[in-house]
Structures are given as structure tokens and as C-alpha cells.
């Protein structure tokens, strides 16, 4: 139904394309000019270490139907950096458009001309032929404009310029910057590593004027691991946003549709600092921002707020609750009597499936595989045993021992990447590998809202590093790694995610049906077209 | 009487050794490393040879076999004990043959022709008495002991041939042999080691602390991250509890996963194992410890994994490097086929 794309904070450049209200366009241009001026002064401090960034804004799929509403469809509907970088890039109208130090030749006038030219072409393209068939004719456009993907900040920690920029942005938003902890393994020096003992909230003043209290609470719950698991985190996020919307009042001379989005930005930065956003959270945030921007300006505040609240409720209901029911329905077809099912860690979806299958009187038993240091499998074990399902518990190192007994493996996913790789809790790829060796079918269960456009082939380039102190353990009264910080050549690595190649996965069960791993980009495309 | 005292002393030592073995096997791994166990076993067998009353080689072999059975029964999973008994038996046969005057070649040859024509036992019954047999046997056992003492150093000496600089090496759990191997290479080369901690006993932590004290760049990872980091690993070097006759391994649990991950990434898997770990058994059923049943939950905690020989690239032992396909040959040089079942 919604034919436009979110006015994205993802782009640092000036994506001024498509039909837009002159008033907004003028405002934006004014702000950009201001920033370019400021930026020229700052250019001297920024050394040549600035990463090269293409100034050409990107246009993937221009909106299929021009609908007469205000918001300018902007480029980058779902760029490769979809899940995470929402907070990483500042609001486009207030961020300094980075001028690559290696392209001093492009003057302001040239850029303006470029932009105007692009607007003309887009306007022309949007003429009469823009019906749904126009979508298909416009698809080739995406191949013409190469997608320049902006790297999210959280995988560029080793670049001091990026870190400085982030610090400045956070300072502007009045959010404290969380500092890295401990010795980082050199292979992962491009990622953050925080300590759980130093939560971000310690650096906040109480009461915090900038950040809504429910967001502060949420951030703390994330960083301490109280709310964990991608579904739980998304739902908690959406509920917190509902509270924010309820408490929101539009300031005078401002429009709800734009101001609320701007209000949400510092919250998202804060949550990202507490714990990097997950793919599901990123998609949820994109959805909310889109909904907010679509509020017509004539809409009264109360009406707008109720509309947003119902939108969020519907999102949760459709994408999470009903999706879980649909997935259970498909998955139960795959569970037969006498099965021995292996599950790993705690996945709310897989647990749901097993409980429902048990209620439908399927006879099976479950093997729960767990791993240090999180030991999430114990929670899954507890819930399954409570229902009365007979369970076995092993650690992941006992996998080769237990697999000959197993008939099926059910895995949950954190995100499904566009090249078919499954991003999930660390250890999942190992389970898939050993299951493949023993010819045991591996089924991954994942809702479609977790699909993301990123591509990744190994677990290094983008990951999350958890608190390294979690690896310490006391055995026989002795903690071997107690003073690991003092030993300069010793490092602890606590990875959170890993990617499983698609050839290890036999089937992906989604709310749209049962698909092979390689069909993920098809689903993504269908979703984009729907929107 | 001095004789009786010595005998009492001997039995005491054997009892103490058996008690140690029985205790050492539950949970956290043996109290002593397998090298020490091997040396202790051999020393005890030497004492038995010296002090027990026997008149012919056959008697001695019976006594050793009896003691050997007792020792292996105390701790079936500690195969080094059985291996040492077999070595000593082989030594006795060799010395007997040498005393008889027949060349070693003809007796030890297990040519197919011989096997088919001799049809069963040879006419050896080891009944003849030779005066110097005792001294010879004890001397040979002393040689064996010296060999045992030098195994770790022999293996460590080969380290520089296999590790180049700036490598990333992965290892699992704690192995004294691998520790010595890596420390020796670290004297001359700079490389990075990733240690998988091997839950639940987490012996990898001790290994990591020891390695980092030798100024080796070490990283500890959880078992779950083995496949995730394997793509950046250049070599996997592991130790093992036993080397089986087909070239397979019986190693600490989690090793099979490491081997599979290494094969997937085409990373060489190198096993550092001294010769005394070589066992004539082919497949051993997995040993499971600590089977706790809490209401409706079974918990399994296997101690060892079986790793098939196809996943292994190289064995480094005190006599040099070998492919897994050659292990059966080495075994025939160490043990006599008639002794394989104690």
C-alpha cells in the first residue's frame, strides 16, 4: 500500500529526488548550505584519512506511483546497511555532508547541477507510464545506478575518523559515548567490545532530559542481557516506542511527521550504544519511521498518535505473532512421531513450534544443545520440561557423540542475509556442519521481517563482541583466566553471531511458506514491491 | 627378610599406582599426564621383572600379562598403560629370540607366506632358560624408559619444520605435547594461537595461560565459535589421548567438530602424539561419564571423541612425521600381533 520509501537517515548525502513540496525542498537546501559552509571550515581538521565516499546519491527503485502527498521519496529504500546503521548516520539535514578529501575539485555549483539533473530525469521517468507495470520497467534502473553502500559505523571502529564523527554526533544528541573495554583480538579490531560492568546509563544524568525514561530502561535491559533474543528485543523496542508516542506532544510550528522522526533519532543512537541493533530491530525501526513520515500534515495530533499506535500493534501482531503461528503450522508437518529433534540454544520460535507440536500429540523427544558462555539452552530446557517434553541436554562439544541419534535439527535465526547465509547465534554453523556430515536434515525457522539485504560470507566482517570477562570460569576453585588483562599476549574472544553457509541448510520455514535458503532475495524483492 | 620387604614394597607401589589410575579417570582428566603414566608403568614393570620369580621367558610374560590386566582393568580409558605392557612383552620376545641366536629378521617378519604356512603358533613356547635374559630384558626396558623421557623433546624439536611465521594455529583443550611443540616454535617464530576452551572442564584456559606466559599471542574462544573462526586458521594442531590402529584418534570431546571444520576449510590437521599412545585397538566405544538424571532430563557428558583417519593430515611423533595410512605399519613394529588381546 505504501508506495514511497522512508526519508532515510541512512544517507549522509543529499538525496533530493522526486517530486517534493517546494517548502520542504527549500528548507532542506538552506540547511545543507549551512552545513556545507561549516564543513568547509572543518575540512582542515579532517585529514586525508577520510574514507572515499561517492557523492552521487543512489536511487534504487524509484517509487512506482507518485501519490500526491508531501513526503519526498528518497533513495536507498533498503540499502545494504539496512539493519544497523540507522543511528550511525545522522539525520541528513543536520549532518555535515562529508566531502571526500580526495575530491576537492567538485564545487557546490557542480553538485547542485548534478542534483537538478537527476531530479529532472526522475520527474520525467515518473510521468504517465508509472503504473504497476512501470515498476518492472524501472527495475533495470537499479542496475544502471551502482549501489554505493555506506558502511555502518559499528564495523569501522578501527578508523579513527569514523569514531570521531560518531563521537561528535553523539555529543550533539547529548548521548554519552561508550568506551571499548579490554584487549581486542586483532582480527576483530574493527568491532566494538564493551564491558557489561560499565553500562551506558552510569554516564547519564538523572533525570535524563534528552532520552525518554522507557528508552533508558530498555537500553539498560539490552546491555545487561535481560532482554535478549531478536523477537524479544524487537517487541520490547516497539512497546517502548509506543510509550514514547503516547507521551509525545508536537511542539508549535512543527509537523508531527518530521519532528517525531527526529525525536526518535537520539533514542536509536542511545540504544545502539547500549547494544548494537539487530536486523529485526532495524527493520522495525524502518517501518515505524515510514509510518510516521506518512502521516498527512492535516491530521490532528491525537488522531495521528492513535493511528501510529495501531500501526505498531498491527506490525507486532502480523509479523511476529501470526507469523509464529504460520511457521508452527508448516513446521508441524515436518515433525513425525518418533522423531528425535535437536535444537540449539534458546530460540523463541523453535520453542513455540515444539510446544505446539507436543500439544498436537506428536511423539518426539528433544535434545537441547548448549554452549558457553551464555548457556541459553538451559532456559529452553526449562520451558520444554515444564510442558512435559522429554529432553536431553548436552554441551556443543558433545555434538559428534549425540548426532547419530538425531533425526532432525531445528534452528532459529537472527537474520537471513540476501546471499542465503543464515546469521544466528555463534555455534549454529557448527551444528549445521556436523549435521550435514551425519546426513541429518537441518531446518531453519525464521520470520520474514528478519530478512535483510546485507550480504556476508564470514563471521568476521560484521559481528558483535560480547563482554570478554564472560569466558572466565572457576573450576576446582581456580580461575585460570582471572588476570587475563595483565597478560599482554592473552586475549579472550566472545563472539555473539556467526553465519551459516546455505549449503548446510536444507529448508527455511517462513511465514510465507517453506523455501530453500537461496530464495531469500526473492522474498526480499516481493516485500519491497509490496511496499 | 630383604626379599619379602622388596616384594611388599613392590606390591605397595603397584597398589598405589592402581589407586591413582582409578581416581584419575573420573571427570577432570587424569591426575598425571599420559607421559608420566607411561613412565610409571614401565618403571613398575621393570621392578616386576627384577623382583618376581621366573625361570623362563614364558613365565615372565605370564606375570607381566597378569599385572597388565590388573592395571588396565583399573582404568580402561587410560590406554597408555596397556600399550606399555605390550611394549614390554615385545621386548621380552625380542630378547628371547636374540638369546636363542636366531636373527631378529626371520622371527619378526610377518610375511604372508609365513602366516599361511606356519598356520598358527610357531614352535616358540619360550620355555628355555637363558642366564642373561633377565639382564638383557632390564637393559632393554631401561632403553625404553629413556625413549619415553625424551618423547616430548623429540616432538618439540620438529616444530620449526611445521610452523612458519605469522601463522594462525588452532588447538583444542590442553595437551602437554602441543604446548611444548608451540613453545619450541615460539623461540624463533612469531605466530598467533587460538585455543578452544573445551567445556565443561575448560582445560583450554590453562593451556592459554601457559602459552601466553611464553609470549605467544593467544586467544581463547568458546567451543561454539570453532567453525566461525576456522576460516582464518592456517593449521590445526592437536594432541590426543590415543592413536588407534587404523590411524584414527580417540581425543578429547569436541575434536571431531574441529576436524570436520578443518576439512571444510581445507585446513591441515596435525596431531602431535608420541609413539607410546599408539594402541592396537581399532574402535573403542565412546566412554561416557557423569550421566546425571534430573527428573526428566538426561545429561550426557562424553569424555572422548572418535576422529576417523580421513580427517587427519599428519601425525608428528617422536620418530618423525607420518601419514595416518602408515600407522598400522608402525604398530606392527612396536607390538607383536599375538599380544594384542591382553
TrEMBL record, chain A:
<feature type="region of interest" description="Disordered">
    <location>
        <begin position="1"/>
        <end position="138"/>
    </location>
</feature>
<dbReference type="GO" id="GO:0005851">
    <property type="term" value="C:eukaryotic translation initiation factor 2B complex"/>
</dbReference>
<keyword id="KW-0648">Protein biosynthesis</keyword>
<dbReference type="GO" id="GO:0007417">
    <property type="term" value="P:central nervous system development"/>
</dbReference>
<feature type="compositionally biased region" description="Basic and acidic residues">
    <location>
        <begin position="42"/>
        <end position="56"/>
    </location>
</feature>
<feature type="compositionally biased region" description="Basic residues">
    <location>
        <begin position="28"/>
        <end position="41"/>
    </location>
</feature>
<dbReference type="GO" id="GO:0003743">
    <property type="term" value="F:translation initiation factor activity"/>
</dbReference>
<dbReference type="InterPro" id="IPR000649">
    <property type="entry name" value="IF-2B-related"/>
</dbReference>
<feature type="compositionally biased region" description="Basic and acidic residues">
    <location>
        <begin position="14"/>
        <end position="27"/>
    </location>
</feature>
<comment type="similarity">
    <text>Belongs to the eIF-2B alpha/beta/delta subunits family.</text>
</comment>
<comment type="subunit">
    <text>Component of the translation initiation factor 2B (eIF2B) complex which is a heterodecamer of two sets of five different subunits: alpha, beta, gamma, delta and epsilon. Subunits alpha, beta and delta comprise a regulatory subcomplex and subunits epsilon and gamma comprise a catalytic subcomplex. Within the complex, the hexameric regulatory complex resides at the center, with the two heterodimeric catalytic subcomplexes bound on opposite sides.</text>
</comment>
<keyword id="KW-0963">Cytoplasm</keyword>
<feature type="compositionally biased region" description="Basic and acidic residues">
    <location>
        <begin position="103"/>
        <end position="125"/>
    </location>
</feature>
<dbReference type="Pfam" id="PF01008">
    <property type="entry name" value="IF-2B"/>
</dbReference>
<feature type="compositionally biased region" description="Low complexity">
    <location>
        <begin position="89"/>
        <end position="102"/>
    </location>
</feature>
<dbReference type="GO" id="GO:0048513">
    <property type="term" value="P:animal organ development"/>
</dbReference>
<keyword id="KW-0396">Initiation factor</keyword>
<protein>
    <recommendedName>
        <fullName>Translation initiation factor eIF2B subunit delta</fullName>
    </recommendedName>
</protein>
<dbReference type="InterPro" id="IPR037171">
    <property type="entry name" value="NagB/RpiA_transferase-like"/>
</dbReference>
<dbReference type="GO" id="GO:0005829">
    <property type="term" value="C:cytosol"/>
</dbReference>
<comment type="function">
    <text>Acts as a component of the translation initiation factor 2B (eIF2B) complex, which catalyzes the exchange of GDP for GTP on eukaryotic initiation factor 2 (eIF2) gamma subunit. Its guanine nucleotide exchange factor activity is repressed when bound to eIF2 complex phosphorylated on the alpha subunit, thereby limiting the amount of methionyl-initiator methionine tRNA available to the ribosome and consequently global translation is repressed.</text>
</comment>
<dbReference type="InterPro" id="IPR042529">
    <property type="entry name" value="IF_2B-like_C"/>
</dbReference>
UniProtKB/TrEMBL annotation, chain B:
<dbReference type="GO" id="GO:0005085">
    <property type="term" value="F:guanyl-nucleotide exchange factor activity"/>
</dbReference>
<dbReference type="InterPro" id="IPR042529">
    <property type="entry name" value="IF_2B-like_C"/>
</dbReference>
<dbReference type="InterPro" id="IPR051855">
    <property type="entry name" value="eIF2B_beta_subunit"/>
</dbReference>
<protein>
    <recommendedName>
        <fullName>Translation initiation factor eIF2B subunit beta</fullName>
    </recommendedName>
</protein>
<dbReference type="Pfam" id="PF01008">
    <property type="entry name" value="IF-2B"/>
</dbReference>
<dbReference type="GO" id="GO:0005829">
    <property type="term" value="C:cytosol"/>
</dbReference>
<keyword id="KW-0963">Cytoplasm</keyword>
<keyword id="KW-0648">Protein biosynthesis</keyword>
<comment type="similarity">
    <text>Belongs to the eIF-2B alpha/beta/delta subunits family.</text>
</comment>
<comment type="function">
    <text>Acts as a component of the translation initiation factor 2B (eIF2B) complex, which catalyzes the exchange of GDP for GTP on eukaryotic initiation factor 2 (eIF2) gamma subunit. Its guanine nucleotide exchange factor activity is repressed when bound to eIF2 complex phosphorylated on the alpha subunit, thereby limiting the amount of methionyl-initiator methionine tRNA available to the ribosome and consequently global translation is repressed.</text>
</comment>
<keyword id="KW-0396">Initiation factor</keyword>
<dbReference type="InterPro" id="IPR000649">
    <property type="entry name" value="IF-2B-related"/>
</dbReference>
<dbReference type="InterPro" id="IPR037171">
    <property type="entry name" value="NagB/RpiA_transferase-like"/>
</dbReference>
<dbReference type="GO" id="GO:0005851">
    <property type="term" value="C:eukaryotic translation initiation factor 2B complex"/>
</dbReference>
<dbReference type="GO" id="GO:0003743">
    <property type="term" value="F:translation initiation factor activity"/>
</dbReference>
<comment type="subunit">
    <text>Component of the translation initiation factor 2B (eIF2B) complex which is a heterodecamer of two sets of five different subunits: alpha, beta, gamma, delta and epsilon. Subunits alpha, beta and delta comprise a regulatory subcomplex and subunits epsilon and gamma comprise a catalytic subcomplex. Within the complex, the hexameric regulatory complex resides at the center, with the two heterodimeric catalytic subcomplexes bound on opposite sides.</text>
</comment>
Amino acid at each position: 500500500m505504501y508506495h514511497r520509501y522512508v526519508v532515510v537517515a541512512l544517507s549522509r548525502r543529499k538525496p533530493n529526488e522526486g517530486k517534493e513540496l517546494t517548502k520542504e525542498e527549500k528548507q532542506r537546501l538552506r540547511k545543507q548550505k549551512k552545513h556545507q559552509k561549516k564543513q568547509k571550515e572543518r575540512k582542515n581538521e579532517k585529514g586525508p584519512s577520510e574514507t572515499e565516499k561517492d557523492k552521487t546519491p543512489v536511487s534504487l527503485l524509484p517509487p512506482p506511483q507518485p501519490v500526491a502527498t508531501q513526503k519526498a521519496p528518497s533513495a536507498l529504500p533498503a540499502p545494504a546497511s539496512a539493519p544497523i546503521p540507522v543511528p550511525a548516520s545522522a539525520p541528513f539535514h543536520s549532518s555535515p555532508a562529508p566531502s571526500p578529501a580526495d575530491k576537492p575539485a567538485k564545487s557546490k555549483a557542480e553538485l547542485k547541477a548534478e542534483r537538478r539533473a537527476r531530479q529532472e530525469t526522475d520527474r520525467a521517468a515518473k510521468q504517465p507510464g508509472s503504473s504497476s507495470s512501470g515498476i518492472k520497467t524501472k527495475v533495470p534502473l537499479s542496475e544502471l545506478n551502482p549501489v554505493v553502500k555506506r558502511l555502518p559505523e559499528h564495523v569501522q571502529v578501527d578508523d579513527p575518523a569514523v569514531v570521531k564523527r560518531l563521537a561528535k554526533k553523539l555529543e550533539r544528541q547529548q548521548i554519552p559515548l561508550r568506551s571499548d573495554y579490554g584487549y581486542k583480538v586483532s582480527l576483530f579490531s574493527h568491532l566494538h567490545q564493551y564491558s557489561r560492568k560499565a553500562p551506558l546509563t552510569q554516564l547519564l544524568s538523572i533525570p535524563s532530559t534528552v532520552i525518554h525514561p522507557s528508552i533508558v530502561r530498555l537500553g539498560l535491559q539490552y546491555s545487561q542481557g535481560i532482554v535478549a533474543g531478536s523477537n524479544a528485543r524487537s517487541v520490547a523496542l516497539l512497546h517502548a516506542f509506543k510509550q514514547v508516542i503516547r507521551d509525545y506532544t508536537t511542539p508549535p510550528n512543527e509537523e508531527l511527521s518530521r519532528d517525531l522522526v527526529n525525536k526518535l533519532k537520539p533514542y536509536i543512537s542511545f540504544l545502539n550504544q547500549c547494544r548494537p541493533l539487530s536486523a529485526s530491530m532495524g527493520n522495525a525501526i524502518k517501518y515505524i519511521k515510514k509510518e510516521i513520515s506518512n502521516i498527512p500534515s492535516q491530521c490532528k495530533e491525537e488522531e495521528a498518535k492513535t493511528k501510529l499506535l495501531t500501526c505498531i500493534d498491527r506490525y507486532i501482531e502480523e509479523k511476529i505473532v501470526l507469523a509464529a503461528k504460520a511457521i508452527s503450522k508448516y513446521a508441524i508437518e515436518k515433525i513425525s512421531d518418533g522423531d528425535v529433534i535437536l535444537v540449539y540454544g534458546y530460540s523463541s520460535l523453535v520453542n513455540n513450534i515444539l510446544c505446539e507440536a507436543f500439544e498436537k500429540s506428536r511423539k518426539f523427544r528433544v535434545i537441547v544443545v548448549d554452549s558457553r558462555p551464555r548457556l541459553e539452552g538451559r532456559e529452553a530446557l526449562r520451558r520444554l520440561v515444564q510442558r512435559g517434553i522429554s529432553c536431553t541436554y548436552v554441551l556443543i562439544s558433545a555434538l559428534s557423540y549425540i548426532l547419530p541419534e538425531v533425526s532432525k535439527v531445528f534452528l532459529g535465526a537472527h537474520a537471513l542475509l540476501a546471499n542465503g547465509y543464515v546469521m544466528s547465534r555463534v555455534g549454529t554453523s557448527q551444528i549445521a556442519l556436523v549435521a550435514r556430515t551425519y546426513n541429518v536434515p537441518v531446518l531453519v525457522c525464521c520470520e520474514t521481517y528478519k530478512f535483510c539485504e546485507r550480504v556476508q560470507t564470514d563471521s568476521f566482517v560484521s559481528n558483535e563482541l560480547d563482554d570478554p570477562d564472560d569466558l572466565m570460569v572457576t573450576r576446582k576453585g581456580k580461575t585460570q583466566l582471572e588476570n587475563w588483562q595483565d597478560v599482554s599476549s592473552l586475549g579472550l574472544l566472545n563472539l555473539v553471531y556467526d553465519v551459516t553457509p546455505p549449503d548446510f541448510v536444507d529448508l527455511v520455514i517462513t511465514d510465507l511458506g517453506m523455501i530453500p535458503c537461496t530464495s531469500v532475495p526473492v522474498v526480499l524483492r516481493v516485500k519491497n514491491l509490496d511496499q | 627378610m630383604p626379599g619379602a620387604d622388596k616384594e611388599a614394597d613392590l606390591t605397595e607401589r603397584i597398589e598405589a599406582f592402581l589407586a591413582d589410575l582409578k581416581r584419575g579417570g573420573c571427570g577432570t582428566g587424569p591426575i598425571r599426564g599420559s607421559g608420566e603414566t607411561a613412565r610409571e608403568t614401565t618403571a613398575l614393570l621393570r621392578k616386576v621383572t627384577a623382583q618376581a620369580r621366573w625361570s623362563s621367558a614364558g613365565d615372565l610374560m605370564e606375570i607381566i600379562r597378569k599385572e597388565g590386566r590388573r592395571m588396565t582393568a583399573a582404568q580402561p580409558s587410560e590406554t597408555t598403560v596397556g600399550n606399555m605392557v605390550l611394549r614390554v612383552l615385545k621386548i621380552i620376545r625380542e630378547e628371547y629370540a636374540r638369546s636363542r641366536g636366531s636373527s631378529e629378521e626371520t622371527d619378526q617378519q610377518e610375511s604372508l607366506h609365513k602366516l599361511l604356512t606356519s598356520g598358527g603358533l610357531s614352535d616358540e613356547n619360550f620355555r628355555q632358560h637363558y642366564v642373561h635374559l633377565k639382564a638383557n630384558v632390564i637393559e632393554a626396558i631401561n632403553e625404553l624408559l629413556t625413549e619415553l623421557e625424551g618423547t616430548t623433546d623429540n616432538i618439540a624439536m620438529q616444530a620449526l619444520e611445521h610452523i612458519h611465521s605469522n601463522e594462525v594455529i588452532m588447538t583444542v583443550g590442553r595437551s602437554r605435547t602441543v604446548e611444548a611443540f608451540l613453545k619450541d616454535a615460539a623461540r624463533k617464530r612469531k605466530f598467533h594461537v587460538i585455543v578452544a576452551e573445551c567445556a565443561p572442564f575448560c582445560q583450554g584456559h590453562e593451556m592459554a595461560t601457559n602459552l601466553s606466559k611464553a609470549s605467544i599471542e593467544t586467544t581463547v574462544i568458546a567451543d561454539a565459535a570453532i567453525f566461525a573462526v576456522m576460516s582464518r586458521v592456517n593449521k590445526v594442531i592437536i594432541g590426543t589421548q590415543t592413536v588407534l590402529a587404523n590411524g584414527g584418534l580417540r581425543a578429547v570431546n569436541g575434536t571431531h567438530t574441529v576436524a570436520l571444520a578443518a576439512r571444510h576449510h581445507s585446513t591441515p590437521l596435525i596431531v602431535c602424539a608420541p609413539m607410546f599412545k599408539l594402541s592396537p585397538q581399532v574402535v573403542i566405544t565412546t566412554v561416557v561419564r557423569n550421566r546425571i538424571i534430573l527428573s526428566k532430563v538426561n545429561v550426557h557428558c562424553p569424555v572422548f571423541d572418535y576422529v576417523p583417519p580421513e580427517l587427519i593430515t599428519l601425525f608428528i611423533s617422536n620418530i618423525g612425521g607420518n601419514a595416518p595410512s602408515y600407522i598400522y605399519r608402525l604398530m606392527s613394529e612396536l607390538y607383536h600381533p599375538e599380544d594384542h588381546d591382553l
